[in-house]
Each structure stands twice: as structure tokens, then as C-alpha cells.
Design a protein that fits this description.
Layout lengths: L1 H8 L3 H22 L16 E5 L8 E5 L5 E4 L8 E3 L2 E6 L7 E11 L1 H8 L3 H6 L9 E9 L10 E5 L8 E5 L3 E3 L6 H6 L1 H13 L14 E3 L5 H12 L5 E5 L5 H7 L3 E4 L6 H7 L4 E6 L6 H6 L1 E9 L14 H12 L6 H7 L2 E4 L9 H17 L7 E5 L3 H10 L5 E5 L1 H6 L14 E4 L7 E5 L10 E5 L2
Parallel strand pairs: 3-9, 11-12, 11-14, 12-13, 14-15, 15-16, 17-18
Antiparallel strand pairs: 1-2, 3-5, 4-5, 6-7, 6-9, 6-18, 7-8, 8-10, 19-20, 20-21
Helix pairs in contact: 6-7, 6-13
Length: 478
């Protein structure tokens, strides 16, 4: 069966089975929403207790649920915490904290990052999520917060601010994480900014390592690089890291005019807006000898042409397939037909051609790297150094409240967002954010004031008139 599936689809039987299950779940979700039997909302209902965002099954925004923990002895947990933890029946993303591994810590999450991978998890198209966790699942990889409890072998102190990586489970107010996946917040970064960088920066640095540019640049004379989707989270990191590593020229490709200037500010020597000009002619003009590396998360739209634009000894690094996927929340029957057509048109790379042209194609997915702790620690050390010496910055971080996870997914799917999207949990409001001047817009339109311990006073700011104090409405929460 495996051989037949590989011959027909290029994937083993288990992956094909998972994809068929995702198709069935998404079509059911789409049908129920169309028939009015399920309601879609861009805002989740907030429970009184600490909670986690779960995806109940593959589908649209209506499959999100903000689920209360019911107990202070419950937290989300990544799939790689396999010993000494008791997961809750019916949800592998949740675990009891009565006893937990000595090398782990419980973090009170204050902010977590939104990545496009999370959208794929919601659709049921992220293989590691299905293989290691299943549904319901708490998505999310990167977060920041405060250590609430520390195992005796964790070498961490309670109350310390940390940035962390978890293999699913970050969309939460409380997460259990191995201490080796927790790091000090780089100097100069706010808690919200800290949550934004681990996933995208780690992806960017691993891509550069695969292309031979890290830990030291190659000895070849050609150091030209081209970066697709350069205004996004990973793309923005790639532009800055390429500059730090001496790449030149750095050609950034974007899909809208409003994304050109942020790429120039990040260090790109050439920016191509493919919505207004043909992509490959100006790219060839910027690098007449071809590119030493091209970083492509677009998928079927650009992969073949990216490979053709490589120089001798050049590397095509693939880490996503955005153009294979729709920009809508729901995967309708028509969307599945378009995705199937995209898979059929995916390029195949001939080993003979790779040899004769001296080119390389590399791909990866960091969600399978849970055992590569030494590699991840080296990456985080380098990334922190770059943040502290100013080589890396996070110029644009758009924030949402935890209840607005569907709205954040809508923004990242639109293809119009720039930089990173971060959700702030209620823990953020309690503790504030060091290093970030207070801004009502950055604060996702909610300011919590504590007049006394029993009656926190919550002020909500109108979305339409964020600059006017007259738009406050007051609500008391018990």
C-alpha cells in the first residue's frame, strides 16, 4: 500500500490517510456552516478561568474553542514531553500538574505567536500535529511569559521572564515545557516582541544554514540571495540575517506595494513587487550570475522558476507552500479541487539535473525537530546575540487579544499582514510589559485597571475610534 500511495501521490499511506481524513472533516465543517448549523465568529467567548485555545477538529474558525482549565493543576504541553506527565483523557494537549518531570517548568504565558503553520493545523494539513497529537489540539510554537513553577532539575527560578518554544500548546495561559526549550528574553525586547521571534527566527537561521551561509559564509564568490514573501515573519528575519552574514545582493520579493518599504528598511538591496512588475526579469538584472540561495515558501507558483534562477552550486530552500493553499477560512469543495490541481503541478527535481547543474534543493519542517535540542540552543544563542547587537529587530508586531485568535488567523491568511502577529493573554494585562511604552493600539484595545483585589475594572476601547477617550465603555468583571 505504501508503494502504491508513493507512486500516485508522492506520500506514504499514513500521510495519505491523514489527508483524506482532513478532507472529510473540512467538508463537513464547510457544509454545517453553509447550512447554518454552525456559527463562525472572529471573537471567542472568554471563560472566567484560565484557558487554552483548542482546535476541536479540522475546519474553519468555528472549530476554535477557548476551553477553561477547570483547575490550577492543568496546563498545555508539547508532544515531546513523554515521561512523568499525565495527559487528560480526550485531549493530548492537556496535562495534569500534580507531578511533572523534574527538568520541566510551568510558564504563565503572557503572549504567544501566530504562524501560518497554525492555519495549516486548523485545516488538518500539518502532518506532525496529526501524527503526534491529533484533535482536539492546542496549536502554537512560540511564547513568552513568567516561570510559575520550576522542576528541581530545571535550573530555573520562579518569577523569571522567559521566551520559549513548545511543540504545540502555546495558545494557552499556562504551559508545561522542558527547561532546555526556555531562554532568557533578549535585552531590549518586550514580552510581546519576545513571543514573536523564536519560530520565525529559528526557521530563517536553519534555512540559511542549509544554504551554507551559517555559521560562516561560504567561500564561493557569489553571495546573491533571493527571498520570497520577504515582508512576512520568516522573510523579514531572512533579510536581516542575510545582511548580517554579508550576503549581497539581497533581493526581496513581495506581493503588494505597501510591503516594499519595510523590506528596504530591513536591509534588502532590491525589492520586487510582483503585483506590479514581472518577478524574474528584475531578479536576473539584480543577480546576472544567478543566485547562491533562494528561499521559497510560496510553493507551486514559484518553485520551478526559483530552481531555474539558481547559480551553479546554488541552493533552493523550501519551507512552505502558501500558493498551494487558499486565503479563505473555510476549505470548500472548490478549494480542495484547486489544491489538488496545485499538487499535480508541483515540480519534480531530477537527480541527474541536480548533479549536472551542481544545484541543491533542501526542505524542512522544524516541528519535527523536538530532539535537536543542541541545534536549537545554538540557534537561539546566535539569534539573541543578533538582537542584542542590533543586527535583528522586530519593527512590526501586531497584537490581538487571546479571544481574537480567529481574527489573527484571518489577518495572516489574507497575505496583507507585515511582520509578526502576537496574541496577548490575560496574564499580560496583570503584569504589564517591560520595555514597551504603553500604547492603547498595541494593547489590543483593552486596559485592565486594578482598583481593588475583588473587582478588577476593565475598560474596552472602541475599534473604530482608538484615539478618542470618549469611546471608552466600562464593564465590571467579578
Amino acid at each position: 500500500m505504501d508503494a502504491l500511495c508513493v507512486a500516485l501521490t508522492g506520500q506514504p499511506a499514513l500521510v495519505v490517510l491523514h489527508q483524506l481524513q482532513a478532507i472529510a472533516a473540512n467538508l463537513l465543517s464547510w457544509a454545517l456552516v453553509v447550512l447554518g448549523l454552525r456559527r463562525t465568529s472572529l471573537t471567542l467567548e472568554r471563560p472566567k478561568d484560565a484557558a487554552a485555545v483548542l482546535i476541536l477538529s479540522p475546519g474553519g474558525f468555528e472549530r476554535f474553542s477557548l476551553q477553561p482549565f477547570q483547575s490550577t493543576e492543568v496546563a498545555t504541553v508539547g508532544y515531546n514531553v513523554t515521561h512523568g506527565v499525565q495527559r487528560l483523557p480526550g485531549c493530548k494537549s492537556l496535562a495534569r500538574l500534580d507531578a511533572f518531570p523534574a527538568d520541566c517548568a510551568v510558564v504563565r504565558v503572557r503572549a504567544f505567536s501566530i504562524n501560518f503553520a497554525d492555519v495549516c493545523i486548523r485545516w488538518g494539513l500539518y502532518e506532525s500535529a496529526i501524527k503526534y497529537v491529533g484533535y482536539p489540539i492546542c496549536p502554537g510554537f512560540d511564547f513568552s511569559g513568567v516561570v510559575e513553577r520550576a522542576g528541581k532539575d530545571s535550573s530555573l527560578d520562579v518569577g523569571v521572564e522567559v521566551v520559549g518554544i513548545t511543540f504545540f500548546g502555546a495558545y494557552s495561559e499556562r504551559v508545561l515545557v522542558p527547561s532546555r526549550q526556555l531562554f532568557a528574553v533578549p535585552q531590549g525586547l518586550s514580552i510581546a516582541q519576545a513571543a514573536a521571534f523564536p519560530g520565525v527566527a529559528g526557521t530563517a537561521l536553519h534555512a540559511l544554514a542549509l544554504a551554507g551561509f551559517w555559521p560562516s559564509p561560504p567561500d564561493t564568490s557569489n553571495r546573491a540571495v533571493l527571498i520570497h514573501s520577504a515582508a512576512g515573519g520568516v522573510g523579514g528575519m531572512l533579510v536581516q540575517m542575510a545582511k548580517a552574514l554579508g550576503c549581497d545582493p539581497i533581493v526581496a520579493v513581495v506581493g503588494a506595494a505597501h510591503k516594499v518599504e519595510p523590506c528596504r528598511a530591513a536591509g534588502a538591496t532590491h525589492v520586487i513587487d510582483k503585483s506590479s512588475v514581472s518577478l524574474w526579469e528584475p531578479a536576473a538584472h539584480a543577480a546576472p550570475r544567478g543566485f547562491a540561495a533562494i528561499f521559497d515558501a510560496n510553493g507551486v507558483e514559484t518553485l520551478a522558476a526559483s530552481y531555474a534562477a539558481l547559480a551553479q552550486s546554488g541552493t533552493l530552500v523550501v519551507y512552505g507552500f502558501h500558493t498551494n493553499l487558499p486565503s479563505t477560512a473555510m476549505l470548500s469543495p472548490a478549494a480542495w479541487v484547486r489544491m489538488a490541481a496545485g499538487l499535480w503541478r508541483m515540480p519534480r527535481f531530477d537527480p541527474m539535473d541536480l548533479t549536472l547543474s551542481s544545484k541543491r534543493v533542501a526542505g524542512f519542517n522544524l516541528s519535527f525537530f523536538s530532539e535537536e535540542t543542541t541545534l536549537m540552543q545554538r540557534y537561539m544563542q546566535q539569534i539573541s546575540r543578533w538582537f542584542e547587537d542590533g543586527s535583528l529587530t522586530l519593527a512590526r508586531v501586531q497584537t490581538f487579544s487571546m479571544e481574537e485568535v480567529p481574527r489573527a488567523h484571518e489577518a495572516i491568511q489574507s497575505g496583507q499582514s507585515i511582520g509578526k502577529l502576537v496574541c496577548l493573554t490575560p496574564n499580560y494585562w496583570v503584569h504589564g510589559d517591560r520595555g514597551m511604552p504603553f500604547s492603547l493600539a498595541q494593547a489590543s484595545r483593552r486596559l485592565i485597571i486594578w482598583p481593588n483585589e475583588r473587582k478588577p475594572c476593565v475598560w474596552h476601547l472602541s475599534r473604530m475610534h482608538e484615539t478618542s477617550l470618549n469611546c471608552f465603555t466600562r464593564a465590571l468583571e467579578p
